[in-house]
C-alpha cells in the first residue's frame, strides 16, 4: 500500500462522527441448595453459590459462568476466558472483586486474562439490564461481581475454620489446589487463602486450525497444522491473600492484601513453519538455495519465523472496607470501599520480553443506604477512580496515559402494595490524558517510518449521564411481571481512542479514533417469573438500541507485514498476515431472550428427580450487516436426581450454527455438548464435611469453535475431560 493511500484510510477512520441496582435488588433472591441441580434466573440479576458454584468453577471466569443464561465464554486458549453478557464483553462488562474493579488489562484486548481467581469465589453475581446503572459506563453490557470474602465480615464460630480443595483434570493433566483458613475471637477475624494451578497443552479431538475457514478468510492453502493438542497453551498460576477485620456491634473495618501470578501461552496462528515450503515467505526473504535451508534454522526455523507468545502476568491489590450500621435515624448503613491495584504483564515472544503492560489504579466507593419512610428506601453514592496505564516495548500499540473518573449516583425504591418501583440516576465524568504528543507508525530497526505521525490532543474529556426505570408487579401468588427501561452511556476507552500498531496476539493491526464519542444503550427489558409448587420458570426478553456503537471495522486497503513494518494489498502468508482494523461508530440493535424452567418429575425417598429446560439467544444488527462475534442460539435440557447429601446430573446443550458472523468473519458450525456431574457429602466426622465430586465435560468429544472467540479458527474449545476432586470443610 502506498503511504498516501494509508494516510487517507487513517483520516477516514478518524472522521467518524462522534455522537442499578446492586445485589440487594427488590427482585426475588436466588437460593441454591444441595438438592437443586439447576438454579433459577431472574430478569436482571442472578447469583450462583454453594455446591452449584463449586461444580462450575473452572480455570477462568468465562468458563465458570458459561452455563449461566445469557452468558458465553470468550476464550483465547485455556489461559483466557472472559464473560460475554448478551453479546457484549471487554470495556462493556464490568468485572469486580467484592465491589471493586479487577483492573487488569482484559479491557484492552481479548488475549489478556482476567486477574480474578474463580477458585476463591464464594458467590458470583451477574447483573444486566437496568440494574447496573450504579456501576458506571463500563457496565453498560453487564456486571460480574466475584465475592471471595477475603475481608472477613463475621467472626468464625470456632477459633479455627477452613477448607481445603484439590482437583485433577484429565484434559492436559490439569491440577488445582487451594485452601482457606478463618481465625477469630471476640471482635477480630483473620482470613488466609492460597492456590496453585497447572496444566499442559489443551487436548482437542481434531486439528487446531480450521483450514477451510482460513482458506475463506485469508485465501491461504498451505497450512501446517497440529492435531490432538493446541501447542503453547500450557499455563501455571499461583496466588494468595491475607485479610483482617474488626467487627463491632455498630460497624466494621477491614483490609486485605493479595498477590496473583499467571503464566500462560497464546495459541499460535500457525503451528509450525516448514523451511522447505515457506508459503510466500520467499518473497520477503533473501534468495537462498533450497538445499541450504536446513543450515538457517536460527532464522528460518519455527521459533524464528513464528515464535511462541507467552504472557507473564502479576497483580498485587490492597482492599479496604468499612461499614457503619444505622448511624442516624433513617440511614440503615454507610459503606466505604477502596481498592489499590498494581497490575503488570509482560508479553514474551520466543522467550524474549517484547512488551510490558502496566495498569495502576485506585478506585473508591462511598454509599449511604436510607429508609426514610416505610415504603421508600434507596442508595446514594459516589465512585471515583485514578489510573495510569502504559504499554512499553516492541508492541506498544497504545501510548501511556493518565486518567480519572468521578461518578455520582442515586437508586431509589418505592414499594406500594403489589407494586415495586425503582429509579436510578447517574452522572459520570472521565478524562484521559496521553503522555505522548503524537503516535508514530512502527518501523524496522534503524529505519524511519514512511508513514506520517498522528498528532494527539492534550486531553480527552467525556461526560456520561444515565437513567433507569423499573417496575415489578406481583400479579399472582406464583407470577411476577417486571419491566425495566434504561438509557445508559459509555465513554470510549483507551484502546478505542489511541491504538495504533500491530497486535500479534489478536492477529491484527489496530487503529484508534480520537473523535469517538459516547455510545448510548437504550434498553427495554421484560421478564416473567413463575414460581409455583411444581414449576419454577423465568423468561426474559430484551431490546437494546445502541446509538454510536463502537466497533472494529476491517479496512479494505490491505494487510500489515509485522517483520517488514509495511502494508501489502494481499495476504502473503499466515505468519506475516495482519488484517488492519480501525475503530468506527454505527447504530446497532440487539434483540434477545433468556429462558429457564424447572419442574420436579418425581419425589421419592431416595431423592427428587428434576428436569430443567433452558435457552438463550441474541442477535445484533447494524443497518446493513451483523455485529461480529455474537453467541449462537443455545437450547438444552438437564435432568438431575438427588437430595441434601448427593446429586447427579446430565446436561445437554445444542449450540446452533452461527451463520451471521459479521463482515469479513467466518461462520461457526453448530455443536452438541453433553456434560455430567455427581457429588456426595460425607459428614461422618463433625465438624468435617468432606465433599467428593466429579464432572465430565464434552463427553461426545465434539470439535466446538466458539463464535465469540477471536481465535475460533485457530483454537477450538477443549475436548473430552473428566474433573475429579474433593473439598474438605472444617
TrEMBL record:
Q: Which InterPro entries match?
A: Beta-barrel_TonB, Beta-barrel_TonB_sf, Plug_dom, Plug_dom_sf, TonB-dep_rcpt-like, TonB_rcpt_CS
- Signal peptide from the UniProt entry: 1-20
| Intracellular or extracellular location(s) | Cell outer membrane
User: The TonB-dependent receptor plug domain covers which part of the protein?
Assistant: 42-142
What species does this protein belong to?
A: Methylomonas subterranea
Give the matching SUPFAM superfamilies: Porins
Family listed = Belongs to the TonB-dependent receptor family.
Topology term for the membrane: Multi-pass membrane protein
Q: Where is the TonB-dependent receptor-like beta-barrel domain?
A: 315-699
> What domain of life does the native source organism fall in?
Bacteria
Entry's PROSITE patterns?
A: TONB_DEPENDENT_REC_2 (PS01156)
State the taxonomy lineage: Bacteria, Pseudomonadati, Pseudomonadota, Gammaproteobacteria, Methylococcales
Protein name per the record: TonB-dependent receptor
Keywords of this entry: Cell outer membrane, Membrane, Receptor, Signal, TonB box, Transmembrane, Transmembrane beta strand, Transport
